From TrEMBL:
PANTHER family named among the record's database cross-references: GLUTAMINE-DEPENDENT NAD(+) SYNTHETASE (PTHR23090:SF9), NH 3 /GLUTAMINE-DEPENDENT NAD + SYNTHETASE (PTHR23090)
InterPro entries: NAD/GMP_synthase, NAD_synthase, Rossmann-like_a/b/a_fold
UniProt keyword annotation of Iron present: no
CDD domains membership: NAD_synthase
Species: Thomasclavelia cocleata
Family: Belongs to the NAD synthetase family.
Enzyme class: ligase
Pathway assignment: Cofactor biosynthesis; NAD(+) biosynthesis
Pfam families per record: NAD_synthase
Domain NAD/GMP synthase: 12-234
Protein's name in the database: NH(3)-dependent NAD(+) synthetase
A Gene Ontology biological process term: NAD+ biosynthetic process
Presence of the UniProt keyword ATP-binding in the record: yes
Any one cellular-component term (Gene Ontology): cytoplasm
Length: 246
C-alpha cells in the first residue's frame, strides 16, 4: 500500500530549496505568482520555511476583476511576506486587439494568453527584485497536460512538480496553512470552470491512478491515458536538429 510521509517530504523539499539557492542565487529572493490556490500557497510557504519570509516575494496578477483574490491577500498575510499587485488586463486586451481581422482568435488563444502574460510579468518583476521564479505546478496537472506551455509550466525551480495534488495538500497541512487555502476548490482562473469539471474526473481518482495504477472506471482510465500521451511533449526538451560538423 502506498504511504506518503508529509513531514519527511516537506523537510526534504525545504532542504532542496536551500541547496538550490545556495548554488543558484545565494542572495536572491524567491518570487511566487500568488493565485490563492493550494499550489502557490504551499510553494510560498515552503520557500518561507527554507529562506525566511524576508526573502520571499509574492506577485498577484489579476486579469481585471478576480473574484477570489481575497485568498491571495489572505495567504500573504498568513505568511507575512511582502507582495505587489500587477493587473495584466490591459496587456492581454492590447494583444487581443492587435489580431488582424483575417485571423479568427481561437478559444485556446483566449484561455492561454493570460497565463503566458502572467509568466512574462513574473519574470520581469523577478529580474527587478533580485529574484528567482518559483514554478508551482504539481504532478497531477502535469500528468494530463493541464498547464499552459510557456505559461504556468515554467520557472527557475520546481518544488512540487513530482507531487500529486493530494500530496501537495498534505504538505500544506504539515506547514500549518489554513484549511481555507488547502480546501479551496481548484480552478484554473481562465475558463470559469473548476479543474475537475474540465477533467471529467476527480483529483482523488487521478492521484490514486498515478501512484498505484489502480482505477475502477475503465473509461476514465482511457481518458487519463490519452491525455497523458497527448501532452507529454509539453514536458520534454525542445526537439533540435543535431548538426555534426565535419
Amino acid at each position: 500500500m502506498y504511504k506518503f510521509d508529509a513531514k519527511k517530504v516537506k523537510d526534504e523539499i525545504v532542504s532542496f530549496i536551500k541547496d538550490w539557492f545556495d548554488k543558484n542565487g545565494k542572495d536572491c529572493n524567491a518570487v511566487v505568482g500568488i493565485s490563492g490556490g493550494v499550489d502557490s500557497s504551499v510553494a510560498a510557504a515552503l520557500c518561507v520555511e527554507a529562506l525566511g519570509k524576508e526573502r520571499v516575494r509574492g506577485l498577484l496578477m489579476p486579469c481585471g476583476e478576480q473574484e477570489d483574490i481575497s485568498y491571495s491577500y489572505f495567504l500573504c498575510g498568513q505568511l507575512g511576506i511582502s507582495f505587489d499587485v500587477m493587473n495584466i488586463f490591459n496587456a492581454v486586451t492590447a494583444i487581443n486587439n492587435q489580431f488582424p481581422p483575417s485571423v479568427e482568435v481561437s478559444k485556446q488563444t483566449i484561455i492561454n494568453l493570460p497565463a503566458r502574460i502572467r509568466m512574462a510579468t513574473l519574470y520581469a518583476y523577478s529580474q527587478s527584485v533580485n529574484g528567482r521564479v518559483v514554478n508551482t505546478c504539481n504532478l497531477s496537472e502535469d500528468w494530463i497536460g493541464y498547464s499552459t506551455r510557456y505559461g504556468d509550466s515554467v520557472g527557475d525551480f520546481s518544488p512540487l512538480s513530482k507531487l500529486t495534488k493530494t500530496e501537495v495538500k498534505l504538505i500544506g497541512k504539515e506547514l500549518g496553512l489554513s484549511n481555507i487555502l488547502i480546501d479551496k476548490v481548484p480552478t484554473d482562473g481562465l475558463c470559469g470552470k473548476t479543474d475537475e469539471e474540465n477533467f471529467g474526473f476527480s483529483y482523488e481518482i487521478l492521484d490514486k491512478y498515478i501512484r498505484t495504477e489502480e482505477i475502477d472506471d475503465l473509461d476514465i482510465k482511457n481518458t487519463i491515458d490519452k491525455m497523458h500521451k497527448k501532452n507529454l511533449f509539453k514536458f520534454q526538451p525542445m526537439p533540435c536538429f543535431e548538426y555534426i560538423a565535419n
